[in-house]
């Protein structure tokens, strides 16, 4: 039997709360934003997802299993790794990192322009 959508959403939101509130990893961390997007797809379609992605800025990998079956729970673990930088960023996470870099560059450019005016 497939896991109902309301149950998928409830389990994912509880895990996101643990990560961002209880553990204290910022919700705007690119890896957390990527995980949220992947969870949102799962909320809509309920298709099994079993994958990992690096937790940007931490020596951890997010391992997650978003099950299709109702008798399985959503699982997310933050696994410590020694060689964090050797892990290749998935395309969706790289897009988040690139967007952050562009935003930081805009901020730096605006600050530089303001300093030039003063």
Short note summarizing the structure:
52% of the residues lie in helices and 17% in strands. With 118 residues, the chain is α+β, with helices and mostly antiparallel strands.
What is the gyration radius calculated from CA atoms?
Answer: 17 Å
**Strand percent estimate:** 15-25%
- Give the tally of structural domains: 1
Tell me about the biggest sheet?
3 strands, antiparallel
How much helix is in the residues?
A: 40-55%
Mean pLDDT: 90
State the end-to-end distance. Answer: 66 Å
Write down the secondary-structure element order: HHEEEH
Q: How many E-type strands?
A: 3
Order of strands, widest sheet: 1-2-3
Q: Given the C-alpha coordinates, what overall shape results? A: elongated
Q: Note poorly predicted spans.
A: none
What count of helical segments does DSSP give? 3
Q: Return the structural class.
A: alpha+beta
Structure description:
- The protein is an alpha+beta fold.
- It has one domain.
- Helices cover 52% and strands 17% of the residues.
- It is built from 3 helices and 3 strands.
- Strands 1-2-3 form a 3-stranded antiparallel β-sheet, with helices on one face.
- Helix 2 packs across helix 3 (91-117).
- The protein is elongated, with a radius of gyration of 17 Å.
- The protein starts with a helix and ends with a helix.
- The mean pLDDT is 90.
How does the SSE layout of this entry go?
Elements lengths: L4 H18 L7 H16 L3 E7 L4 E7 L8 E6 L10 H27 L1
Antiparallel strand pairs: 1-2, 2-3
Features:
3-stranded antiparallel sheet, elongated, 3 strands, alpha+beta, single chain, 3 helices, 118 residues
